[in-house]
Amino acid sequence: MRGTRYRTPSIEIEDAVVEAALRLLATTGPAALTVRGLATEAGIAPMGIYNHFGDKNGVIDVVVRRGFEDLTADVSIGLAAEEPLEGLRAGLHAYREFAMRHRTTYAVMFLREVPNYTMADDTLEMAARSFGVLTQCVERAMRTGELRRDDPVAIAQQLWSATHGAVALELTDLCLVDDVVATYAAMVETMLAGLGPLRAGAAAPGARRAHAR
Predict the structure, then answer these.
(1) CA distance 101 to 82
(2) Which of 181, 168, 87 lies closest to 134 in space, CA to CA?
(3) What is the pTM of this model?
(4) Is residue 207 part of a domain?
(5) Any idea what the Cα angle at residue 190 is, between residues 187 and 194, rounded to 5°?
(6) What is the CATH number of the domain that holds 43?
(7) In the chain, how many domains are there?
(8) What b/e readout covers 145-164, taking b as 16+ CB neighbours within 10 angstroms?
(9) 171 domain-assigned
(10) Residue 204 falls inside a structural domain
(11) Do 60 and 17 meet the contact criterion of CB atoms below 8 Å apart?
(12) How confident is the model at residue 204, as a pLDDT?
């Protein structure tokens, strides 16, 4: 973890450098992501990178922060839905749609696309806010009884783990099914059904595991 960066670049330079970074990552890969390479691609002097971002990792921080801002906005659709379970479902689908629209950004955010990059503290806080939206969606569905009562943070982590795994496989061309959209939708429905209210007389999964021991 790195400390928070306080340098604030002008929006024009920030836009140009972020777009340059995404182009280089998408076309050439992380090896091309040097200060000199970024400056050349963005059409500015290398000193402009140092002055406005500090170093290459400062550029990646901005890419990632913007990514989390967009992701948080997209998955927040779940909080706007009148029916909490439908909102949670919409948020889980919005997560995949974000990744498919912003493949390079998602890879930088979650797939360690840039070697030796670690998020700054303020960037980690933005990531936590994205996760917080998912947790709120889970809490809403628990309050209405559409999901059974449990630790909402733990359930949100389970949902995120599953959706991220599916998205990562799709982005790395490791989905071995013909219809990845239908498969993702089926996975979401399986998870939501499994987290739904217990039938009369049924024991919660944790209770069943404890009894088995």
Answers:
(1) 26
(2) 87
(3) 0.85
(4) no
(5) 145
(6) 1.10.357.10
(7) 1
(8) ebbbeeebeebbebbbebbb
(9) yes
(10) no
(11) no
(12) 57
